[in-house]
Amino acid sequence: MKKFFETISNMWKIEELRNRILMTLGLLLVYRFGCQIVLPGIDSSQLGGLVDGTGTDQGIFGLLNAFTGGAFANASVFALGIMPYISASIVVQLMSIAIPYLQKLDKEGESGRKTKNQITRWLTIGICIVQAPTYLFGLSAFGVPDSAFLMGRGLDFMIPAVIILVTGCVFAMWLGEKITDKGIGNGISLLIMIGIIASMPQSFAQEAVTRWNGVGGPMMVLVEIIIWFLVILACVLLVMAMRQIPVQYARRTASGGYEKNAIGSRQYIPLKLNASGVMPIIFAQAIMFVPSMLGSMFNDTSVGQWIEVQFADIFGLAYNLLFAFLIIVFTFFYTAITVPTNKMADDLKRSGGFIPGIRPGKETGDYLDKIMSLITLPGSIFLAILAILPAVIVKLLDVQAGWALFYGGTSLLILVGVAIDTVQQVNAYLLNRHYDGLMKTGKNRKVA
């Protein structure tokens, strides 16, 4: 504990790091404040169906509510959250495979990156313009009565409300970019993380009170906490695990050429066990509302009724089996399009590097592709298990749904991934100033 407080003190001594941390906390506070501001024209006292979770704890809508920190259920000016920007980023990334212009931008360095970011921003606005009226008209399906709309749903309400929702999303996107530039950590990821954390204390308190006054008592609460820490440890292992491919580089001569027979420096190509992150879960979650929708369309048949019932329960067996299968499929798909093994092989060849025992060029690309396939399989299965773990916890331990969502799935993986990334950035500042990092042990290494 003493070591921890010494590290916090060292962080505060570095002026640049201190200013970045304060900037990050300030912008996150602005975002959380905005999540509590209800849209003009809506009576906040009649949002009981949303606030109590009626209809918003199922499927993709529960995911959106978690990512927005409750702004979705509060009918807030930030109700769309940062998800339109995430969707736009995914679309641009996927389209980069098929559109030559986007591929050209990837090769233009910083200027190409800026142009691509601008395209993403405009696409974000387009997605918001579509999602905002859909959200407003869909509030009735989540238990909001018509009387909650003080001005009705005419154009005099819809047009300003859509403008406010689009502006709120753009402002949240600006906050995320400012955190990345002026603060610490990835701004967009931190906004999602702070939204997820916002609902954690309430969910745990409800679970603790229920256990304390019901079955299990305080001992069951302790068991749940221990299991939760073990799941976090598993998430850390999944995020950090990687396969290191040894690479040999020919040593340069004074004239600038290469000594082919000389032993050069040896490095590694890190291939992550879970190179796709949480994207397979997000893709799969977005598709999982389709079976129940199809079942409702054909509910006049016994098969349609069975599908509607089975896939309406996000903790049911059929739902989670299909969910796990889709995650495994999307993990392979997303890894294949985001890890360019052939480009890695070409870059390695141009830089004078080679994998010992493997010929440069096509054979190196095939070898890297084979390794990625071998490590992606266990990674995808592990990711699928973590994604369906909340359902397992609910069935085995009878945990409340709100608290069970923190035992795995997208929420916990995002929390762990963003926390590790932020800690690594803080570590870089500490180690550059000759202090021990947050992930280091040993004596203080400050230079006198």
Global Rg: 25 Å
Query: How many beta-strand elements?
Result: 5
Number of helices: 19
Structural class: mainly alpha
Describe the structure.
By secondary structure, the chain is mainly alpha-helical. Helix content is 66%, strand content 5%. The protein has 19 helices and 5 strands. The strands form 2 sheets. Strands 4-1-5 form a 3-stranded antiparallel sheet. A hairpin with a 5-residue loop joins strand 2 (251-252) and strand 3 (258-259). Helix 2 runs antiparallel to helix 8, helix 5 (83-95) crosses helix 7 and helix 7 (110-138) packs antiparallel against helix 8. The protein is globular. The two termini are 24 Å apart. Residues 53-59, 258-264 and 441-448 have low confidence and may be disordered.
Characteristic key phrases:
three-stranded antiparallel beta sheet; disordered C terminus; 448 residues
How do you describe this structure in short?
With 448 residues, the protein is mainly α.
Break the fold down into its secondary structure elements and pairings.
Blueprint (H helix, E strand, L loop, with lengths): L1 H12 L1 H20 L13 H4 L7 H9 L15 H13 L4 H7 L3 H29 L16 H28 L4 H12 L1 H14 L3 H24 L1 E8 L1 E2 L5 E2 L6 E7 L6 H9 L1 H9 L4 H11 L4 H22 L2 H10 L2 E2 L7 H36 L3 H4 L4 H24 L16
Antiparallel strand pairs: 1-4, 1-5, 2-3
Helix pairs in contact: 2-8, 2-9, 5-7, 6-7, 7-8, 8-9, 9-19, 10-11, 11-17, 11-19, 12-15, 13-14, 15-17, 16-17
